[in-house]
Structures are given as C-alpha cells and as structure tokens.
Design brief:
- The protein is of the alpha+beta class.
- It contains 10 helices and 4 strands.
- A 4-stranded antiparallel β-sheet has the order 2-3-1-4.
- Helix 2 packs antiparallel against helix 10 and helix 5 packs across helix 8.
- The longest helix is centred in the middle third of the chain and has 59 residues.
- It is rod-shaped.
- The two termini are 13 Å apart.
C-alpha cells in the first residue's frame, strides 16, 4: 500500500497556485454579503432594563414597623426574578402587551380571529427577548422594522410585567381585606344587637353605671336600686357587657388591620424599578456593513481554501492509485 504525502509544503504550494481562484471567491462572497445586507430590510432592537424590588417592603409588617427593616433586602432575590421570568413567558402577559401596543394595527392582522391572534403571538414570541444578568437585573428587548414600535413594545413589556407582578401580591391582600371587612360587618350587626339589649335592660332596671368586668382601669360607681330580679339583671348585664366590650375591641383591631392592608395595596408602591428606558434605536440590529464584509471575507476565504486543498488532495490520490 502506498502512503500518500500531503504535508505543509504541499498545502502552501496548492494555495499559491490557486490564489487567484481563492481571491475571486473571497471577493464574490464579500460582494454577495454586501448586496444582501443592502437589500435586506433593516430591523431595530430596543432594550429596557429594570431591577426587581423586594415585595416584602410592601408588606404591612414592614410598612408599619412590625419587624426590623434592616433584615429585609431592598432588592428582590432569585425567587422574585424567577417569578418575573415566569410571568413574561405566560400568555396572559403577552396578550396584554399585544393588545396594549395595538399589534393588530401595526402588523395588519385580525386579532379577533384564531389565525390572526396566533400569528400575532408568533410575531411577538419571535422578536421579544427577556434575560437575567449577573447583576440581578432584568433586560427586555424587542426587534422590529420600525424603531419607535420596538421601543414602545419594550417599554410596555416592563409596564405590564410590573402591574402583573404587583397584582399578584395585591390580589392576595385584597382578598384578606375583604375577609376582614366581612367580619367587621358581622361585628357591627352583633354590637348593634347587644347595644339594643343593654339599653332595654338598663332602662328597665335603672342601672346606668359601668359594671363590665372586662374593662380595666375603670372605677365602677356604686350601684343603686333593688327589687326582685335586680341582682340577676346585674349579672346578666355584666355578661352581656363583657361580650360587647370584647366585640368592640375586636372591631377596633380589625379596622386597624384593614387600614394597614389598604395602605399596602397603594399603587405608589412599585415592585420594579426601571434603570434604562427603551428609546428608538438609531442603528439597525446585527452586524454593521464593515463587520459583515469582514466576516463574509473570512468565511469565503476559508471555504475556498478548504475546497482547493480537498481537490488537490483528491487529484493526488487518484494519480497514485492509477
């Protein structure tokens, strides 16, 4: 069996012999890349960056100093960033962004038909991107043929994400608020009924002194009166009064909690902080003309050289076999 020799010297000689062919292919590749870049419609990429705030700062325990705020970080952790990424991938958020940005007008699709809606969702998914960085901030970007549209969609994405993320917590707080408020309404009814009962008993037996044993630091005045049933009336009055006092105290506590929960749902509490707002980009996305020509030249030169070397090796192999 004959060994085929094709060493570095052969490679250099082959390249020297075919240098004209390699140069022509390289120039042709550059020309095609330049022409393609000029013919291709330019796309623009707008980017916005934001930080995720710690939702615990909007909690009633932190807002009203029920705990030491030194142990609550201002910035959201990995779990909070994961929630943002999950919301961004949801159809609910994408649907709101598409409708708020009037995609049906921008891309000339009927959003009310299943086919048109699916096409708009596909366009958004293709051109939208969101990623976390090593600095624990989030970067959203959108690519479009119109620079203003790209910036509008990127900024709207941040706005919708913030509203969705905030509503996730405020919705729970609103449910708690409604639950406590329903209990306050029941307490109002019970207190009103007990008040009517106590009023009737006091007028009936002439007992107008404060005799509730549940009230602390209150000097009980001397009781006056008597007669059959007077003693039992005092005992019943104390029992009912103690229940009413407890219900009134509970009601005051619930109303205080309602005010705290209502304060935590205020829209002034932002859950994300925009650090870079998207602006209409000036330069198109992708490589510039210079970088495109350089890349095309390198690729064309590489493949032309590889082709020349393979053909030379193949011819040498055929010559030896013959």
């Amino acid at each position: 069996m004959t060994n085929i020799s094709f060493d570095l010297v052969d490679i250099i000689r082959t390249i020297q012999k075919q240098k004209r062919f390699i140069i022509i292919i390289t120039l042709a590749g550059m020309a095609l890349a330049g022409a393609g870049l000029m013919v291709k419609k330019k796309k623009y990429k707008a980017e916005a960056r934001f930080l995720v705030n710690n939702p615990l700062y909007g909690d009633r325990n932190t807002l009203f100093r029920a705990r030491d705020t030194r142990y609550v970080d201002y910035f959201g952790g990995d779990d909070d960033l994961d929630k943002i990424m999950a919301f961004a991938a949801s159809d609910t958020v994408r649907n709101r962004i598409i409708r708020n940005c009037q995609f049906q007008t921008v891309y000339k699709k009927d959003i009310n038909t299943p086919k048109g809606y699916a096409e708009l969702m596909s366009i958004f998914k293709k051109n939208f991107n969101i990623k976390r960085t090593e600095y624990k901030d989030v970067e959203v970007s959108y690519t479009d043929y119109d620079p203003q549209t790209a910036a509008n969609v990127a900024n709207m994405s941040v706005k919708v994400l913030e509203e969705t993320y905030r509503n996730y917590y405020t919705h729970i707080k609103n449910d708690i608020y409604k639950s406590i408020n329903d209990q306050v309404i029941k307490l109002d009814s019970s207190i009103a009924a007990l008040t009517d009962t106590l009023s009737i008993m006091r007028d009936q037996y002439g007992i107008y002194s404060i005799i509730s044993p549940s009230r602390q630091n209150v000097l009980v005045s001397e009781l006056k009166g008597g007669g059959k049933g007077y003693g039992r009336a005092i005992e019943e009055l104390q029992n009912i009064e103690s229940i009413k006092d407890q219900l009134v105290a509970d009601r005051a506590h619930y109303i205080s909690a309602l005010n705290e929960f209502y304060a935590t749902t205020n829209s002034a509490l932002e859950f994300v902080k925009v650090i870079t707002r998207a602006l209409p980009p000036i330069n198109p996305a992708g490589l510039s003309m210079t970088m495109t020509l350089i890349a095309a030249a390198l690729l064309s030169f590489f493949f032309a050289t590889l082709y020349v070397l393979l053909m030379a090796y193949y011819r040498k192999l055929n010559a030896i076999e013959r």
